[in-house]
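Hey team,

Filing this mostly as a record. A colleague (T.K.) asked me to run one chain through the structure pipeline before their review meeting, and I want the input and output archived in the tracker in case anyone asks later how it was produced. No errors, nothing strange. Just documentation.

Input sequence:
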Amino acid sequence: MSETTAEGGTLDRVLTLELARVTEQAAIAAARLRGRGDEKAADQAAVDAMRSALNGLSIDGVIVIGEGERDEAPMLYIGERVGKGGGPQVDIALDPLEGTTVCAKSLPNSLAVVAMAERGSLLNAPDVYMEKIAIGPGYPPGTVNLQWSAEDNLRSLADAKGVPVAAITACILDRPRHARLIEAVRSAGAAIRLIGDGDVAGVIHTTDPEETGIDIYMGIGGAPEGVLAAAALRCTGGQMQGRLQLNTNEKRARAERMGVVDPYRIYTAEEMASGNVMFAATGVTDGNLLDGVRFYKDRITTHTLVMRSYSRTIREVRAHHHEPG
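Output structure:
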C-alpha cells in the first residue's frame, strides 16, 4: 500500500523505516563524540552520516529546513538536493543533532531528527525564533491558543484534562527571555520542567505525558525546530501553534524571500507540516522517551520513534547494528 502525492509519485510506507535508518546513522555518529565537549565535531559527524544515508534513499528530496544556508556546503543546507532521484518528490526537514550542547555534555534528550513530506508541504521557515505552544493528542480543538495568557492556556488544558492546574507540568527552555513566562506559569499554580536545550524533544514529550510528565510546551525557540516539532505532532494528533519572531527589518526581509507574507501570522501544526508526513527521531543521549545509543564490543544499539501522519502509526524501533571487529 502506498500514498499518492500531488505530483503523482508515491510516498510509500516502506520509506518510514528507511527514514529510521537515516536518524540511526546520524545518532551513532554523534554518540561517538558525546560528552567530549566539542559541539561542532559532534554536529559535523551527524551531518555527514545523515547526508550519506539520505543520498542512499530512492527519493528526489529537497531540504527545506536544514543546518545552514546555501553557501554552507559542509552542512545540510537549505535547498540541497538529496537522494538517488527517480523516486517521490519530497520536502525534508532535519536536525542531524538536536541539542548539540546536550550531546557535548552528555546530558539527556539529544536526538537525531528527520521529517519528510510531499513536495511543498513543509513551511520554509527562516532561521529565526518562533513563539510556540503545544499539547499532545486527545483534547478538543482550540484547547490552547498563542493569543491567550499563560494562565488561560493552563486553565483551559487543565479543564480539558479534568484535573486542577496544579496537576499540569509545562516544559520551557531555560532562557532569560522566559523569566516572565516562568513567573506566570508558577503564579497560575502549574509546575515547570526547565530544559537547557532541545525544544523538538520538549514538544514531542507532550505526546505522552504519562511517560514524560510533560503536559504542555510553551515559549520561544527556533523556527526550524518548530517545523520539525509540528511534523511530529501531525503524526500523533497533537495541537501546536507557532508565530515567527520577525523583530528586525533584516529578519522580515529574509522571511519574505522564503515566502512568508504575513509576519504576524499564527501557524497551526497543519500549516507548518501539511499533507502526508513521516517523522523519525533516534536518541543520541538517554531521555524521557528514547534511550541513547549504546556501544558494546560487537554491536551498537539504537532506540528510534518512527511515525506517519497518514495512519497515525507510532513505532518504537530498537535496533542492533553490527560493529565491525
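Quick notes for T.K.: Residues 1-10 have pLDDT under 50 and may be disordered. The longest helix spans residues 14-31.
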